């Protein structure tokens, strides 16, 4: 019952429907959360039945949500993916903390932001360049920083469009990944051993907003896969300590 | 943003009131299978045409066409809700959003009766067809065997439903697929042997319009349960798309299956005295007639499988209604609990499904013949379903009006389905008056009233809570719109 895989070009009234759907999305942003279907229909001069259909479609896709009164609409979580992530440079104080960690370990140290639900590298180790940013953002299941993001999602499956296999160690079984994600959420530590590159691995800890407790960033160290597999008690302690120092600096 | 953050007109919960269930984890096919199994088309394909033919005569096809249209209209009304809210309480929670707590309570009671008794009837049906199969290999039938089979199947269904919604949905999907395939093989072979075209006899209304109309009632019985997907809204991966489609497609699929089944039986049996209406086991007779007696083995396996899938789907829907009632405080709060690992309403399952198993076992042991037990359970269940359908069809346009999204199509669907359902409820009650059904319905209604009076007296503050569903919680919103 999934939509048929059509490769046919847009035809008939479809271009108009696409335009209308985008107009509805824009109108919800312009009017603010709580706007009703009737108000949207009036503002856009769209026939009510068309508006209701488009709204139901956008809600089904997760771009919009219905508020608990079932009348009002607001932007859904998925709408966050329509914005270009603000890859703002972290403040100098935060970069100093990351740099201090780099001095103390012989591993690569990277800082990632999870702004609007997407993984963006904001401070990467120049001496140990990480995997390309686009790959990390698209395949969160294969990296430690990505798994931290998944562990924070109410429905992590929606955030993984494709379980691509990079190495023999990449977790591509949904059930196994579900267990791992639950484990990451519980231990507040993500690990990746040779899942992206056969000989590299990563450990990552989350950084939560001090006030709201929301996940804002992740701090990772990367090194040889066989070293990552070990318990690394001291390393994890060091990582957690620096993450704690970063939390108040990354609002 | 025009509104500053925190300017939401309605406060959001931090967590969905349906938390604890295995949210957003069922694929479209699995959700579809729940609805199809709820309607148990394989069993109805074999039995419903002959029952409808008693009044509709050879024109029984038209009764099924009308019933299919009605089911599609009911599906349309249910879809108005399920496209907008993901609930676990099926029509009970939906009715609440349109008509408020008191009619919702009525719908809930009707639905509990319908789901509960249909689950029991399906267990008895599955057991009796298995017993028939065992008889072929020399196991002597009798009530102890039948009761044992019912007990075994009930236990199996309980364990499967308990151990996770994905597992049970997968089992339901596979079992139902087997059942429908077997029935299609049976009817395909019969149709090929009879010759697919046999004149216009099946299309002529030989018993008149009145006969066709009377035949609609048993035909509707074949669709009952097709809304089961509405109980799995919380667990469906894309509920607003999957659930309404599952319900509509089930109505369509069952309609096609019943038309094929009715057509085959009408033309295959028109040479016999009494024609289709005179046959107690039409498909087996047909198989004998076409010198393919072994077909009835396939038939028995298919029907037993269909009944078992029906038990699981209906039982799954039943416990989710109880879960919703538990969380609302209408029934003891414990029913609202979910198992931390299986993520299913384990308390409701461990209470309701054993009861649904033991009631028929006890009645069989008390000497009630299984055919009588099956028919009574089924008929009373159908009555419950009809009431619930009636209420949800009334509720749909009211709900749409309330949220300001009323359309002409929605009004039309309701305007046609409500009177037809009303007539069906009355006709159903009147037609069963010889067998004491009106008394049973009255007793059930009285029981519902007593329960309502008790809730009103002791838990009046809980009534407004009726209608919980998987609300949008803070985590579902885009950051800028919190």
Defining traits:
heterodimer; A: 251 residues; alpha+beta; Arc Repressor Mutant, subunit A; Beta-Lactamase; 2 domains; five-stranded antiparallel beta sheet; three-stranded antiparallel beta sheet; 9 helices; 17% strand; elongated; B: 482 residues; mainly alpha; Amino acid/polyamine transporter I; 15 helices; globular; disordered N terminus
Short account of what is shown:
Chain A: It comes from Prauserella muralis. The complex is a heterodimer of chains A (251) and B (482). Chain A is of the alpha+beta class and 251 residues long.
Structure, described:
The complex is a heterodimer of chains A (251) and B (482). Chain A is an alpha+beta fold and 251 residues long. Chain A is 40% helix and 17% strand. Chain A folds into two domains: 14-81, Winged helix-like DNA-binding domain superfamily/Winged helix DNA-binding domain (Arc Repressor Mutant, subunit A, Orthogonal Bundle); 92-249, GAF domain (Beta-Lactamase, 2-Layer Sandwich), CATH 3.30.450. Chain A is built from nine helices and eight strands. In chain A, helix 1 packs across helix 2 and helix 1 packs across helix 3. The longest helix of chain A has 18 residues, at 14-31. Chain B has a single domain, classed as Amino acid/polyamine transporter I. In chain B, helix 1 (28-39) crosses helix 7 (165-194). Mean pLDDT of chain B is 91; it is low at 1-6. Classes of the chains: A alpha+beta (251), B mainly alpha (482). Chains A and B meet through helix 1, helix 3 and strand 3 of A and helix 1 and helix 9 of B. Chain B: Keywords: Cell membrane, Membrane, Transmembrane, Transmembrane helix.
